[in-house]
Amino acid sequence: MDKTLMLYFREDDISVLPxxxxxAKEWGRQQEEGTNQTTSPIRTxxxxxxxxxxxxxxxxxxxxxxGITKLQAAGWMNMDQNWTKQRxxxxxxxxxxxxxxxxxxxxxxxxxxxxxLVNLKGEVIQKFHSTKRLQALEEEQATxxxxxxxxxxxxxxxxxxxxxxxxxxxxxxxxxxGLSMKRATLKxxxxxxxxxxxxxxxxxxxxxxxxASGDMEFTDPIVHTERExxxxxxxxxxxxxxxxxxxxxxxxxxxxxxxxxxxxxILLHLPMGITAGGRNKxxxxxxxxxxxxxxx
Length: 296
Description:
The protein has a 4-stranded antiparallel beta sheet with strand order 6-7-1-8. A two-stranded antiparallel sheet has the order 2-5. It has helices at about 15-35, 40-60, 65-75, 105-120, 135-140, 155-165, 190-200, 225-270, and strands spanning about 5-10, 80-85, 85-90, 95, 105, 125-130, 145-150, 180-185, 205-210, 220. The chain has 8 helices and 10 strands. It has a domain at about 5-185. It is of the alpha+beta class. α1 (about 15-35) packs antiparallel against α2 (about 40-60), α2 (about 40-60) packs antiparallel against α4 and α4 runs antiparallel to α6.
């Protein structure tokens, strides 16, 4: 899961989401009319649009002393005009200053954003979509929207793109776009935790690693009684079952990804008024950036 990130957008007056929705609608219109000249998928274009809007806001706020003073007053920049870092505080349920994480210079931040804009092309982005359907967010009157971002790690460029995103996690400049990011975490499945408690929770049973054929590796306890031998055989079968479940999960995930791409295509081609999007506080009158400039 190292390649996976979660992006959280605030839905307020400075949110970039309305601009992203407009880009998605324009892309869908061009696809339907057969006039779309872009070669990158919509997920990559949307992420490039996000980075472009963030860069423009950073440049605007750091262009003069007035903007820098406001950033310093908010705690997003220090007196040396470096961007501070933030982290999520579960007690305060808000982003707070994280001095231990250091700072990032404005020059370094802009260099990273430029790198992303140059290399967000083709299939480098595997997934970029909301974790909830837009209609559900509309009904809940949600104030935040979570997006799932998965980056391909096949190749040096894709790996560096992922590393660049990781490096800007927590940088206060993200707040200019109403955005925060974190690494996605994957909890062990409940069935795996239950089996582990059953198999390894018994005191006095030592575990050793046994070689196995192929890429399957199993653990086997040093047993002394018939009951322990029986438990050992059951553990062996459970581990085979779990490994097969993991393989089946991968197949199912691939099918779900295919279904998600098809659903996204269908939603983009629904008549106006059917898809959600009215919850945004401000809908831009024009595209934040032309599609062809995102796919140069």
